[in-house]
């Protein structure tokens, strides 16, 4: 196993090594250099980090337009938030259609879609629902839900039915928190994850 | 490939099937029943859903106590939030030590840890930093960071240095949004994910 470059290195007469602001020990610079070489961690961009932290969660988020048309967007930036009550949060671009529909309708669904939807789901992330009826154009099968008026994606591994609770601006996005008012699951469905940042959708293995 | 159950298996003598709010086809109830059987999605609990959506992201979040001791907690509930500026969010129990330290210090680090820390990282999720010096007790190697006064976990695949921006209550948790002020990465490190809900830590394969 690799050893910490940390602190357990530095100085006398030389380097003062700190961990959390506390001086731990001191080693000569040559040892520091050697230990540092044992790790190859370097400054990277957040875009590079997004590739390194993959596979990322992947889902299709569905909303409903005022005209009653379902809209789907591809999303990786979501997380569970609470157990009591059960909640999750989704992070959407300020400019997109889905965010404005969540804010106006107060409802959405999050479908953890099947590997069979690999191509259709990927295409959902490449265009806006303002100009494309994605369900029809990309062949996304829909299913009515029990507690919200928006449909889910049929054949999914999990479908969360969500009711908006709050929203918070975060840079160029808005984070929406929601109560999970119903959830369905099918353990036999193999789900998609986002790989290489968000460049590719594929399942994972253990 | 499975076909959509579509929706509304109701209506007779033939059902109106909707996709995305548009009438697509009509089928007799017997066929609708057959198609519905093709999916085995059922109502489940959110706890069951958390198992089905695994592998989940996994990280160790580090903070600093007023006494200058680093504290580490295991976390799966985090997500990227923004590209400009780069931001991420972490969701922590209202009762835990880490949340109060983030709120008081305004800084934390998120380390996407190596598979070699499997046992130590799992143990971080089983106790409170109020009673245990986890780094010392579980052998977590620390490394000083560049922009924040808290250490990261040495030998990680990615380490995010984060400065608190906002916080939002979400059920029994609080969601903290933060700007990523620095990030380091090592693509040669194999990272851990949470499996079976959060019962097990292991890497993933493609």
Could you walk me through the main structural features you see in this protein, from its secondary elements to its overall organization?
Two copies of one chain form a homodimer. In chain A, the strands form four sheets. Chain A has a seven-stranded antiparallel sheet with strand order 5-4-8-11-12-7-6. In chain A, strands 1-2 form a two-stranded antiparallel sheet. A two-stranded antiparallel sheet of chain A has the order 9-10. The longest helix of chain A is centred in the first third of the chain and has 9 residues. Chain A starts with 17 loop residues before the first strand and ends with a strand. Chain A is built from five helices and 14 strands. The first copy, chain A, has two domains: 33 residues, no CATH class; 155 residues, Pnp Oxidase, Chain A (Roll), CATH 2.30.110.10. Helix content of chain A is 18%, strand content 35%. With 206 residues, the first copy, chain A, is an alpha+beta fold. At the A-B interface, strand 1, strand 3, helix 2, strand 6 and strand 7 of A face strand 3, helix 2, strand 6, strand 7 and strand 9 of B.
Could you tell me how far the N terminus lies from the C terminus of chain A, measured between alpha carbons in angstroms?
Answer: 22 Å
Q: Low-confidence stretches of chain A at least 5 residues in length (pLDDT < 50)?
A: 1-37
Number of discrete domains of chain A: 2
Determine Rg of chain A (CA atoms, Å). 22 Å
Order of helices and strands of chain A: EEHEHEEEEHEHHEEEEEE
Oligomer: homodimer
- Percent of residues in beta strands of chain A: 25-35%
Trace the largest sheet of chain A across and list its strands. 5-4-8-11-12-7-6
**Largest sheet report of chain A:** 7 strands, antiparallel
| CATH-level-4 superfamily name of the largest domain in chain A | Electron Transport, Fmn-binding Protein, Chain A
What shape does the CA trace of chain A take?
globular
Number of strands of chain A: 14
Mean pLDDT of chain A: 84
CATH architecture of the largest domain in chain A: Roll
CATH topology of the largest domain in chain A: Pnp Oxidase, Chain A
**Name of the top-level CATH class of the largest domain in chain A:** Mainly Beta
The tally of helices of chain A reads 5
Task: Give the chain pair forming the largest contact, with residue counts.
Answer: A-B, 96 and 91 residues
